[in-house]
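REQUEST ID: PR-0412
SUBMITTED BY: lab tech R.K.
PRIORITY: routine
TASK: structure prediction, single protein chain
INPUT:
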Amino acid sequence: MVVDIDLPEMTGIEMCEVLKGSGRGLPAILITGRTDTRTRLLAAQSDAVAVLFKPFDEEPLLDAIGRALALSTTDHTDV
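STATUS: complete
OUTPUT:
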């Protein structure tokens, strides 16, 4: 999932934690326009696949999406 860190009701990081705690967590790519120390620290402490600072080129986003998809792929072979 691609989510902005700055959301109206909670941060994108908090949203990821809520989803993870409910068992519905997804690999997350965080985006933000903030470059302050607090935001960078919070982002670094998250378990996001990537943190992209706006503005960003499409290549880092596509790379992050590829890594997130690889993480979400599970083996569906029958036992």
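NOTES: Residues 75-79 have pLDDT under 50 and may be disordered.
REVIEWED BY: pending
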